Amino acid sequence: MKPIAPLITDYLRDYMPNQRGYSSNTCETYAYSFQLLFNFASRQLKKRPSKLRLEEIDAALVLDFLEDIEARRQNGPVTRNLRLAAIKSFMRYVEHRDPSVLKQSGQIQAIPNKRFDRKLIDHLTIDEVKAVLNAPDVSTRFGIRDRAMMHLCFAGGLRVSELVGAQTVNLILQPSPSLLIYGKGRKERCLPLWKETAADIKGWLNVRGNTGATELFVNAKGEAMSRSGFQYILEKHVRKAAKSCLSLIGRSISPHQLRHSCALVMLEATKDVRKVALWLGHADVRTTEAYLRMDASEKLEAIEAVVPPSLRRGRFKAPDALIASLMENA
User: Fold this and answer.
1) What CATH topology corresponds to 126-302?
2) DSSP letter at 318?
3) Would residue 220 be called left, alpha or beta, if left means φ above 0 and alpha means ψ between -120 and 50 degrees?
4) Nearest to 55 by CA among 98, 112, 12, 110
5) Is 93 one of the annotated active-site residues of the chain?
6) Residue 93 reports pLDDT greater than 80
7) What single-letter DSSP state applies at residue 16?
8) Residue 306, pLDDT above cutoff 50
9) How many of the other CB atoms lie within 10 Å of CB of 52?
10) Is 182 a catalytic site residue?
11) Backbone φ and ψ of 167, nearest 5°
12) Could you confirm whether 88 is annotated as catalytic?
């Protein structure tokens, strides 16, 4: 029986980043998936995670693990399917290293993703976005930073990893403001910036100071801003904005909702899902098509282009009061 520790180490540290070119964020997400899996297997098999064997991670155990994260951790179908995708990817990698696990891997590959109802994308209206962006106190250094971060996240339609990973060296303010972004799969895209966004970023650069970090946005210690740090900042300003924008009261706003909001503004302005996909850095335009369900203008154009069927009309005639009472008692 083969120990799983060296296999998973090679998979995460060499195969994913070096051979397949996965981003550090993807590697971290997969690593956390395996942390959960191996801790679960350790509890089930009564042995330390470092002592687990490859053959012990079979389809039955994987199914039990998926049920466990749904029941105990309250994970939804999307997270459940993400954990399963990580396990399947690892098993495909192992197949090439050891063909003897083909049957075991095949059984795991056969585990289906969980289907679920796709809800409409949660987003902010433009008035809600304005309220959040106006929340920071721009007379302070961190208020200037927070406004610039949130403004760039919305205007650029950035993923939070793209925002906190933005490099100062990739920012151009003259003659035309733009920012080079490294997205998923290490794909590059150059985003032109609104003058208002560029002005907020320039304001932050004037007070940023000299730090050892190469990232555009830094925390109070002068280190690169983390994803959780930006989430905290956003939530703080949403609570403040809710005092003047009542629709924000009690809502939990994530950085990704700023990205969704940008996408819908772009779709409404361009009416072209391909341009929105290019702006967001989507590799497949089918991913962007989810926003079409949110944009009512597309549906209005469709209904206005169709001639509705002509139907026979009539007038309602109320029955005699006596007859009506008799019908109720019949």
Assistant:
1) hpI Integrase; Chain A (1.10.443)
2) P
3) alpha
4) 98
5) no
6) yes
7) I
8) no
9) 20
10) no
11) -100, 140
12) no
Could you tell me which of 152, 136, 251, 133 has the C-alpha nearest to residue 193?
152
Q: How far apart are CA 52 and CA 60, in angstroms?
A: 15
pLDDT of residue 307: 54
Q: Which residues contact 149 (CB under 8 A, 6 or more apart)?
A: 163, 217, 225, 230, 233
DSSP string, 165-190: T-BGGGEE-SSS-EEEEE-GGG-EEE
282 has catalytic annotation: yes
As a whole number of angstroms, the distance between CA 270 and CA 298 comes to 11
User: Residue 191 belongs to what H/E stretch?
Assistant: strand 188-192
298 pLDDT exceeds 50? Answer: no
The tokens for 95 are 């197949």
- Classify residue 215 by its DSSP letter: B
What pLDDT, on a 0 to 100 scale, did the predictor assign at position 302? Answer: 45
Q: Give the active site residue among 11, 15, 30, 291.
A: 291
CB-facing half-sphere around the CA of 79: CA atoms within 13 A: 15
Mean pLDDT of the chain: 84
| pLDDT tens digits along 168-190 | 999 988 888 888 888 766 677 88
The predicted model gives 282-302 an average pLDDT of 54
Of the candidates 97, 130, 239, 256, the residue annotated as catalytic is: 256
pTM over 0.90: no
CB atoms within 10 A of CB 298: 15
So what's the pLDDT on residue 308?
56
> Which member of 80, 151, 259, 260 is catalytic?
259
C-alpha 242/C-alpha 264 separation (Å) is: 22
- Report how far residue 132's alpha carbon sits from residue 125's, in angstroms, rounded to the nearest whole number: 11
Catalytic site includes residue 83: no
The verdict on whether 96 is a catalytic residue reads no
Helix (H) or strand (E) holding 4: none
Annotated active-site residue in 83, 159, 208, 237: 159
Q: Which residues pair with 190 in a beta bridge?
A: 180
Identified catalytic residue from 184, 202, 227, 240: 184
> For residue 183, what are its two tokens?
């997205």
- Tell me the one-letter amino acid at 13: R
pLDDT score for 291: 53
Closest C-alpha among 98, 83, 84 to residue 7: 98
